[in-house]
Amino acid sequence: MAIQFHGVSAVPLAGIDASAPDGAVIGIIGEDGSGKGKLLRLAAGLEQPESGTVEAPPPRRFLGISSSLQFGPVGLLAIEHTLAPHDYLVRERAAIAIDRLRRAGATILLVSHEEDLLRDLCDEVWWLLEGKLAGRGDPVEMLAAYRRHVSARLRNWGESIAGGSALNLPPRMRRGNGRAEILAIELVGESGRPTIVWRSGELATVRITVRFHDQVANPVIGILVRNRVGLNVYGTNTELEGLRLGPCSPDECLHIEFTFRCDLCPQQYTLTVASHDPDGVWHDWLEDAVAFSVVDSRHTAGVANLRAQVTCRRE
Q: Does residue 164 or residue 97 have the better pLDDT?
């Protein structure tokens, strides 16, 4: 008998209707608090629903994150992050054991945040969102949909905490002769709102406010993006872009904007900003002054998202 949820509610789950056949591995994904653990405990018979019914084949077994790996004969096996603490060898052995259970007709419910594991083991993936079934289907398609959702949530979160300005890290190093001072650095997304998270490919803007304390004939304002291991990813300045800023007088402020397509791969980056003379004498240099992240709905390797188009000609 397959596992069946009929109108099941048990906080945070609300009105779950779903079933899985015998001999299937079902991946369960979702954010913390979405009800993944509750669904597994209901399936394993450890808890009872507040309303609705759960039908499941006996015997049933639940494995939590600290449980020993028990893969003996069973009708239903509920696994909640049990493989996460283990090494590659143990996980590979577990994958073989799970496949044997599936072939013997068992239904396996697997909660995990590891995409590779879900892609390799699961016949179907269920996505829980705020206690409801947001989607179910092919693992590759559902994981891609979930990544798009997470990417959008991260992007919105980045806007919510950006909070207007400015220098969101103590600069790793600040140096210069003090003839100019960088007052503010702001990252802006395509929406026009400040953010510390950009989507890969969106139109991004870096806003810089500089105040001059002395007369400067021809200041140059520059930016440098580094990845999390310190590799220089991209740098430019007003001189390279053909914008002459001087002469600038004491107490004068300049507001500079660098706008570019953020074709970076998803990971963490830092931004260094400087004001200097054309000969390289620094007025104010802020090393790694702003930390930001880039997110995307799919994985890409490296730092540059070149957005390749792939074709195939067969003879």
A: 97
